[in-house]
Amino acid sequence: MTDATAHTTPEPGSKSSILTVDPHTAKRHAAEGRFKIYGIIAICIGLFFLAALLIAIVSNGTRAFTQTRVVLEIPLVAAEIEAAEAYIVKTSKYNDLVGEALTGAMSDAGIETEMEPKELLMMLSGSAGANFRNFVLENPDAVGGSHQFEFLASSRVDGYLKGRVTREALVDDKNLDAAHLDLVDQMREAGLVERSFNWDFIFGADASESRPEAAGIGVSMLGSFFMMLVVLAFALPIGIAASIYLEEFAPQNRFTDLIEVNIANLAAVPSIVFGILGLAVFIQVMHLPQSAPLVGGLTLTLMTLPTIVISTRASLKSVPPSIRDAALGVGASKMQAVFHHVLPLAMPGILTGTIIGLAQALGETAPLLLIGMVGFIASNPPDGLASGFLDPNSAMPAQIYEWAKRADPAYYERAWGGIIILLLFLMTMNIIAILLRRKFERRW
Amino acid sequence: MNDMRLIERAVDMDDIKISARDVQVYYGDNHAIKDVNVDIQDKTVTAFIGPSGCGKSTFLRCLNRMNDTIDICRVEGDIHLDGEDINDKRVDPVQLRAKVGMVFQKPNPFPKSIYDNAAYGPKIHGMAKNKAELDEIVERALRRGAIWDEVKDRLDAPGTGLSGGQQQRLCIARAVATEPEVLLMDEPCSALDPIATAQVEELIDELRQNYSVVIVTHSMQQAARVSQKTAFFHLGNLVEYDETGKIFTNPEDERTESYITGRIG
Ligand SMILES: Nc1ncnc2c1ncn2[C@@H]1O[C@H](COP(=O)(O)OP(=O)(O)OP(=O)(O)O)[C@@H](O)[C@H]1O
Ligand SMILES: [Mg+2]
Prior knowledge:
The complex is a heterodimer. By secondary structure, chain A is mainly alpha-helical. Chain A has 19 helices and 3 strands. Chain B is an alpha/beta fold. The interface between A and B is medium-sized, with 20 and 30 residues. Chain A: InterPro entries: DUF3333, MetI-like, MetI-like_sf, Phosphate_PstA.
């Protein structure tokens, strides 16, 4: 043993102690320390931006989830309703009824004001009269009694209660002035105004530019949902079949090499290119309806396919070849080896890749611009499957983009709220991916 | 080398099961097997010995066309099983591999239950009509693989959760479950303890009654114990092929002698 150590130390006799650190080791420690610091700095920068993003989203977006409403008890007098129905512009007459009720309710609550009912109505959403009329038409039996309505407050009043609108900002506003806001304060004390959770934002339809308080993301959520169905139905089988063939069965030659390179390149093609491809192929050549989730889904399928193929092939590749040998060795055919052994092992990776591809498609806006799913005002939910696939609709990211474009700051708030919903969906999908991964991995 | 038990065993029959003529194997430009001619007899254990990298595994894989799965691998020459060319266009390698089973150098159980591992071959070849029959086949295979006693209480446990040696015996069980006519074993005992090794060797001896077994081994003692014929490979050449007793006591080639006495390899 002493012999051996004498050979390895350069200067025989000068034995070094392991209790003191030699200069070479010290250098390595220093390098290690520096690397650790770089890493920690990088992570901190990343976390900082993540935190900034989350704070911005939460602080801007959560307000979209509550909505101010004005609670009014309105008597449904048959004569008045008949009179209103006799007019050409019926909702305006109903509006007047609402205005009267509002005035009455205010004086009952002891709130004094000089304002005309018309002016008071500015505090309500423009849809109040229409809501009233719809209720009457749907419930003819209720006429004669009275009903408690919860009308949407106008976006300015809503914004005031949320701290978005200030008195100074209303100086130039033609709809509302500071006097209104004083009334709102008093009405709130009297219980005429309340703020509650805004289910309509989650399930409702988009509204016109002048009524942000009525806009919801629900219909475009359905649009996104139908698109995802299309993507799932096409991209998953095509992508997996293509990858299995390329990875396990295709001969290695120039042609398959070419395909491989092309797929890798396709994954890096900007999504707007897929949009214009979708426009050319599905709308101009195949004459599918514009703005339809079917077309959007097909376009997104084109976009997601390379991602799915690449991740599927990677997970097939990562299955150890000894498993294939084992299966072939007992006389399984290639197909049996792949489907009985390789595919189950690759499944977690394939599923993760697919869900990431889907999530990517869910958040994609650019290709939808070109096939007309952006800017479409989705005011009616689709009735039934066929209409869900074929009727014009929007999609969540397109809806968010649309809201962010509109002038009214109330829409800006909704855009942030929409982002929260979109992120929740993406998070759910990622969690599903993780759970599926766990489930399939635990089997072995 | 003193403890080698050289048993002179008469080779039962001179039926030739596999005959290989002028076999060449190339991995790309690497000429891994050169001009190998060998006749493997039925109901016989044939051992392949030789230094690491000499091409034993490669040649073994030619016999059930497992080299087909390696893209860069090219096999030339004739290999006949029972007089039929295994490289004939009409031969489906799947049928061939059902007849010529294989145990690989590295244990490679399926990441499924122990039961499923043993049952897989019989299942895909339709050897069992019902569950009871399959159970029987599985038990018989696991017993022959000398692993039944260790796993009979946990047939549902994953095969990959066994120790290395147990995994290898499971792989042996899986290979014999399909009742192959020829069993190719690539260093089946390299991960086994002496007891399991003895059990596997017993199995090999038992298999010899009906099948022919080709075993690659680095243990000269093992070759001497289990085989009737021994082939010595060196640098891709088949240097010497003869009765095991002759190879170990009176080899003709210098290289063989150097190897078995421990001078090359
Ligand atoms: N898949 C492969 N691709 C390329 N070359 C290979 C491959 N497998 C084996 N070879 C080469 O073929 C030659 C023979 O290898 P082989 O595995 O047959 O040796 P072996 O005798 O089984 O060795 P060992 O005793 O170590 O298992 C080696 O030179 C090796 O590098
Ligand atoms: Mg080998």
